[in-house]
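Supplementary notes for students who missed Thursday's class. We covered one full example, reproduced here. Read the sequence, then the structure, then the short commentary at the end.
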Amino acid sequence: MQEAKLRELMDQMTLQEKIGQLVQLSGDVFNTGDLSTGPQEKLGITQEVVDNCGSVLNVIGADTVHKVQDQYLQRSRLKIPLLFMSDIIYGYKTVFPIPMGLGATWNPDLIREDYKIIAEEAVTDGGMVTFSPAVDIVRDARWGRCLEMPGEDPYLSSCFAKAMVEGFQNNWEKGKSIASCVKHYAGYGAVEAGREYNTVDMSERRFRQEYLPPYKAAVDAGCEMVMTSFNTVDMMPATGNKWLMDDVLRKEWGFDGVIITDYAAIQELIGHGVAKDKYEASKLAIQATVDIDMKTNCYSNHLQPLIENGEISEDLINESCWRILKLKNKLGLFEDPYFGCDAKLCEQTCCKPEFIEQANKTCNEALVLLKNDNDVLPLKKTGQKIGLIGPYADNPGIFGMWALHGDRKYTITVKKALEDVLGTVEYSAGCNVLDDTSCLGGFGNIPSLAGVIKTGDELAEDEAKALEIAKNSDVVIMAMGEHILQSGEGGARTDITLPEPQKQLIRKVKATGTEVVVVLFNGRPLALTDILEDADAILEAWYPGTAGGKSICNVLFGDYNPSGRLSVSFPHNVGQCPLYYSQYSTGRPSSPDSVHNTRFVTHYLDVPNEALFPFGYGLSYHKARYSNLVLDTDKMSKDSTIHVSVDVTNESDVAGIETVQLYIRDLVGSVVRPILELKGFKKVQLQPHETVNVSFEITEEMLRFYTRSMKYESEPGDFKVFVGCNSMNLISTSFTLK
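Structure (token representation):
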């Protein structure tokens, strides 16, 4: 529809019809026959609100979308179609590794292609908008939603934010693109104590410098929507925060798309204590230019009274309505209200062999080898007795919490993949994931994922069989991890170690004298110190998705040389949280050259300051050496660049991929600066005993930060350049900015 025609349509709308466009209801308000009055009454909304509703939450399935849309349009005076939005995070039917695993690929170009596949599958089944990507900075392993994020670093996360948006929206290729909604704007990853929905409070400088860049990268990449976060920003909840939504997002960044709340977030302004009732909450949200009220009656019941009482201008409703109509028009819904979805097309498209192969390719790159003592890996396909133990060994639920629509019948478990390699495998679960799941609670309409809890003789038999397998094997693969509901939304934990029954089993298996290879399935950085000595090798598999088992076997047997590198720091102990590599300088650093007594420096008495496994870390079967770090000049002006080169030598007989990482430190600033900041990375293929010269370019823009006067600019002074394989193993040199 041409914009002039769209304007004509909007001019015909009544105020209630416009307000209706700002209301999102969930699928329980609709069914495929008549309207359901129960959920309607529970929400406290009228039939008129339902008839004018602008969008639907988490209704997907081509046939269902057709029925709901047809039913709605029959009652719609102006035939403005519904917009269908869903949580399609890191896969639809074909499931890719969780985003924390995607971050470990350090390969945004690859992930862009993955997200094109996700979009194509989802669109065939009725998806129009996806609530993704989530790009909150993750620095506290206690937080359950770690699994949804690419990592702890603003630069790396920004690269992924851009790639994910571009993949989803796919240059708006018909039938292969879906509107993306970046979330959770903003700062959600910094909730105090790592506790879900909790307070966030930090300086504006830090907020802008570290937490906002990935959101801006998504906006700059053209994301169509932004979702508000549940947390406060400067003691004002994001959903009612005019500075955050209007001043920064809209005016400063130029975002003219749709802002939607997270679930019931406008109503929760009352719980925060910044509004006494829904009337006041609605006023705060609409004045902050929040366009869509997800799953409450705040806007539907209170915007018109606010206008009639002269407390807000009708212009605010007009502006929001126009943004929503523009999105519907951009998606072509006035011509095709079903967005091309078709059940037969969906069946032909989803989980195609080439899609599963792409998931396998990505998962290969996402796996991170954390430990490999005495080169126990790679395993041998012949001449070595290999046993398989663990509750995740034959578990198809290796998707993680937010793969709501994944098709489990295509899941490749570790057992299945291992049988494809070896023929037959001696296997026992050995123990439960958890012996008691009562702490996990429920989670809406997600199917019960607690699983079967074995007790008594059955559990004892499993353990006895596992120990017998271990005694008769040269090496055992132990597939262990968090319960699927121990991470994800609402999954905050103060104990971030493996569940106790699994730790006990690892100790008992190790006591048999067999070599132990632990494969981890988890949605957060884990504290692994209490299993470290009992594992000869540890492979971090995250929740790896549809092709997970195949990729795990690819790495374990050396068919793929592991190249994954951590995008988050793994702590020694939960007490280190929040933990991240880019710590700030202090007056009493814990370093050998400190002038203070070793007690009176910033340190712990019981664990190191540093991570157990640092940001950027990962082992491979090749051995790389970094040398000859050279700058083409050690003087830089604001109009010049510095070219950096480094030699990377493969000192092994195995070819592999090395992720070369560039960091910079600003030695003296008008405000305290981080000790390291990632500024670039390159993945390079190394042949056996090959030396590759890798180059980077440093520009003045890379040296900018929010100075004492809150200007985003660089300052003259001395800088150190670091290059290496992770944030702790680096070589360095220096330059000066004049």
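Commentary. The chain has a mean pLDDT of 95. The radius of gyration is 27 Å. If anything here is unclear, bring it to office hours.
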